[in-house]
Amino acid sequence: MASLHLNAATTAPSQHTKYPIVTGTSVLGLRYDGGVMVAADTLCSYGSMAKYKDARRIRTVGPATLLGASGEYSDFQSIMDMLEGMEQQNDNFDDGHSTDAQQTHSYLRAVMYQRRSKMNPLWNDLVVAGPNFLGLVDKIGTTYTDNFIATGFGSYLAIPILRKKWRPTMSEGEARGLLEDCLKVLFYRDCRALNRIQIAKVTEEGGAVVSEPYEIETDWSAASFATTKGGLEGDGGW
Amino acid sequence: MHRNMYDTDVTVWSPEGRLLQVEYAMESVKQGSACVGLRSSNYAVIGALKRSVNEMASHQKKIMEIDHHMGVAIAGLTADARSLAKWMRNECLNHKYVYGQPMPSKRLCDDLADKHQRTTQTYVRRPYGVGLLVAAYDEATGPHLFQTCPSGNIYEYYATAIGARSQSAKTYLEKHYETFPESEKDDLIMHALRSLTGCVQGDGELTKENGSIAIVGKDQKFILIENDDLTQYLDRLEVEGGAAEGGDGDAMQE
Amino acid sequence: MTSLPLPPHSSPRPLLTSPLPRSALTHANGIQRLPIHHSEPHSMAVPASFDQQPGADSIDHGVTEAPYERRFSPYDFNGGTTLAISGPDFAVVAGDTRMSTGYEILSRDVSKLHPLTDHCVLASAGCKTDVDQLRSVLDIRSDMYRHNHQKDMKVTSVAQMLGNTLYGRRFFPYYSFNVLAGVDAEGKGAVYSYDAIGSFERTHFSASGSGQSFVVPLLDNVIVHKNRQDEKRELGAEEVVEIVKDAFVTAGERDIYTGDKLEIMVITKDGIQKSTFPLKAD
C-alpha cells in the first residue's frame, strides 16, 4: 500500500502520476451459472482518511459490460470518459456494432500499456465482466482472465475464500452470498474497506445491472474481535 | 468525355451541379477489367479478370487480401488500389491490436468511403481512380459484399459486378442471385466464374491465367484461388459447355 | 516526513554488477536500466524498482525497512519457465501455465506458448504485459510479411525478426525471456535462444525464465550428454516429450513460480501437436 506523500505540494508540478491520491480498495468478480458477478464497496480513501462514502466503483459500459475499478478514482473517471466516448462513436456509426466485454478488456489493456510506456500510468486495477467473460487489467497492462478475480487486499483475503468455495455451477444467489461473505471479511480486516457495497451482475438475457449501494450486516462478536489476545486485561491489544 | 472549363479541379462545381473530376474518376473504374462479387448466407466470393499488357508480361493482380476475414477485388487504377489496400490492412491490424478482434467490415468500409469523399472536397487532392468490391465475413453479422466508388458512395450487395463489360455479369447475377443464399462454396465459385465469362474481351476465354477468385466465410479464412488451383473449376465450366455466354445463362443448371 | 537513515550494511552490495560505468546505467530521466539477461543476479532482476537505494533489500515486507515511498514501476515479474528442444525433424517446446506476481498466484491457466506460424512457436516468460505486447507486435509484423510476400515466414526469418524487434526496444526493453522453436526450410528442428534485448543464437535446446537454472543442468546431461561416458542416442519426439515433463516436474519442485500445468507443443513439418500435463499446484 503506497503511503501518501505529504510533501507532494512542495515539489515541482508534474503531469505524471507517481502515486495514487484518492483510492478505492478491492474489487471482486466471479463467474456463476448464467453470468458474471462483480462486487465492491463504495469507499474512496484519501490516504488513511475515509473521504468519500458514496463512490460508485462499478459501472456499466454499453449494454452488457461491467467495469469495476480499484486504485485512483480520478483515473477511473477519466477511463469512463474514454469508454463513453467509444460508446458514442459506436452509436454515431449506427452500424449495429457495439464493443463487448472482451473488446473493452483488450482496449483497456492497450490504453494501460501505452500509458505505462510513457511512464504516466492510469493507477487502477480494472475488472472487466461480460455475460461470459471475466478479466483483469492492471496499471501496466497486465491481463488475465479467470473464473474469479480479486484486486487489492482482496487478493490476500478474498482469493483464499473464493478458491475454497467457488464452483462453476453456483446459482446467482450463491454467488451473491459468497461475494458478500468476502466483502465482509475485507471490511473486518482491510482498514480502507467499508460495509456499504454494490453488487453487479451481467447476464446474456438481462445485460449489465449494478445494484444501489447497501450495507451488509456485520457481526463483531467473534472471539478474536471480542477478546484481547492472551486474555490479558487492559493491554489494549487484540 | 469532352473537356470544358469546369473540369480541372475536383472542388469546383460545373453550372449543371456536377463535379466533373469525380465523374472522370468514376469512368476510370469502368475502364478497369471486370470484377464480380456474390454471397451466400455463409460465404462471400469475389472474382476478377486479370489483364496483361502483352504476352510477355505477367497478369496484373486484381484481388488482394486485407485480413483473414476480408479481401478486395479492384477495378481501375491498380496503384491507387494498392495504396487503399495498404491502408485497409493497417486499419485491420490496428483494430485487432486494440480490440483483440477482427475489424467489423461495415465499419472499415464506411471509413474507406469517408476517405474517398475527403478527396472530392479537399484542395490539391484527386479522387482515387478505383472501385473496390470488398468481400468479408464478420463473426457477428455473417458475410458481406460492399462496393466503393471514387465519389465516396458505398453500397452493400447480394451480388454485383464492376469494371469493363460488367453489365453482362450483372445480368447473369440478377438472374440467379435468389438461389445464392443456400449455395455452397463451390457453387458460389462457379457462379462467379460463369458471370465472368461474359466479361472477357473479344473472342478471348476465361483461363487459369486471367481468372482469379477468392472466398471468405464461416470457418473459412480468406483464400485466393488462381492458376492451377483454378483449373478444377474451369474444367467444370468446360463440362457445362461454355455456359452463360453473353450472360443469358440458358445452359445453367443447379 | 523525513526518511530515516538506512541501516548500515556490513559490506555494501553494488547496485549493478554490469561492466558498464554507473553513468551509462542511468537514464536521463533517472531510470536505471533493467538487467539485460536472466542469468544476472536476482537482486537486479526483480522487482524493477527504479529509485532503490544501494543496499536496500529488493523485497521489502513493509516492516524491516525505513519508511519508503512506493514509486511506479513499468515492469512486473510474472514468473514461469519455458523450454524448447530440437530434434532431427521436430522441435518440442513447452511452458508452464502459472502466472504470479510477488508471492501471489494470479492465475493458474495462462499460456506461455504463442504459435506465430504453422511451424513456429514463441515461448516467453517474464513480464506478462511486455510478453503480450511483444506477441502483438510479432503477429502484426508477420501478417505484414504475409501480405507483402504472399507466404508465411520461415523460422529463420522469424528468429531474425524477433531479434530486431527486441533490439528496437534496447533502451526500454521488453522484459521477456524468449525461446523460439520450429522446423526450418529443410524440415529440421530449430531452437533459438534470446536475451531480453535481442541477442540470439540457434541452439540445440534452450530453457528460459524462473526455473531455467533447474532445467538447464538436467538437459545438459540428458539431451546433450555432457560429462557422460555412455553412447549418445538419438531421441524421438515422444522420448523428448517425456524428458520435458520430467524437467518441469523437477523445476516445479524447487521454483515457486513454476507449476499448475504444463503445455507442450511438438512441431513437425506437418504442423503443431498440442498436449498438456498436470503439474503440482502448490
From TrEMBL, chain A:
Instruction: Tell me the organism.
Output: Triparma columacea
- Principal localization reads cytoplasm
Gene Ontology BP term (one): proteolysis involved in protein catabolic process
Q: Which InterPro entries match?
A: Ntn_hydrolases_N, Proteasome_beta4, Proteasome_bsu_CS, Proteasome_sua/b, Proteasome_suB-type
Its annotated compartments are:
Cytoplasm; Nucleus
Q: What is this protein called?
A: Proteasome subunit beta
Q: Which Gene3D superfamilies match?
A: Glutamine Phosphoribosylpyrophosphate, subunit 1, domain 1 (3.60.20.10)
UniProt GO cellular component terms: cytoplasm; nucleus; proteasome core complex, beta-subunit complex
Q: Which UniProt keywords apply?
A: Cytoplasm, Nucleus, Proteasome
Q: Which family does it belong to?
A: Belongs to the peptidase T1B family.
Give a short account of what the protein does.
Answer: Non-catalytic component of the proteasome.
TrEMBL record, chain B:
Instruction: Tell me its family.
Output: Belongs to the peptidase T1A family.
What are the UniProt keywords, alphabetically? Cytoplasm, Nucleus, Proteasome
The record places domain Proteasome alpha-type subunits at 6-28
Taxonomic source organism: Triparma columacea
Q: How does it assemble?
A: The 26S proteasome consists of a 20S proteasome core and two 19S regulatory subunits.
Establish whether keyword Cytoplasm is in the entry: yes
Q: Where in the cell is it found?
A: Cytoplasm; Nucleus
Mind telling me which SMART domains this protein's record contains? Proteasome_A_N
Give one Pfam family, short name only. Proteasome
Instruction: Identify this protein by name.
Output: Proteasome subunit alpha type
The UniProt entry lists the main location of this chain as: cytoplasm
Gene3D superfamilies assigned to the protein according to its UniProt record, in alphabetical order: Glutamine Phosphoribosylpyrophosphate, subunit 1, domain 1
UniProtKB/TrEMBL annotation, chain C:
PROSITE patterns in the record: PROTEASOME_BETA_1, PROTEASOME_BETA_2
Alphabetical keyword list: Cytoplasm, Nucleus, Proteasome
The residues that cross the membrane are none
Renumbered residue ranges of the record's region Disordered: 1-22
Task: List, as start-end ranges, the regions of compositional bias called Low complexity.
Answer: 12-22
Enumerate composition-biased segments (Pro residues): 1-11
What SUPFAM superfamilies does this protein's entry cite? N-terminal nucleophile aminohydrolases (Ntn hydrolases)
Q: Where in the cell is it found?
A: Cytoplasm; Nucleus
A Gene Ontology biological process annotation?
A: proteolysis involved in protein catabolic process
Sorted alphabetically, the Gene Ontology cellular component annotations on this record are: cytoplasm; nucleus; proteasome core complex
Recorded hits in InterPro entries, A to Z, give:
Ntn_hydrolases_N (IPR029055), Proteasome_bsu_CS (IPR016050), Proteasome_sua/b (IPR001353), Proteasome_suB-type (IPR023333)
Q: What family is this?
A: Belongs to the peptidase T1B family.
Q: What is the documented function of this protein?
A: Component of the proteasome, a multicatalytic proteinase complex which is characterized by its ability to cleave peptides with Arg, Phe, Tyr, Leu, and Glu adjacent to the leaving group at neutral or slightly basic pH. The proteasome has an ATP-dependent proteolytic activity.
How is the quaternary structure described? Answer: Component of the proteasome complex.
Q: Which PANTHER family match?
A: METALLOPROTEASE TLDD, PROTEASOME SUBUNIT BETA TYPE-1
Name recorded for this polypeptide: Proteasome subunit beta
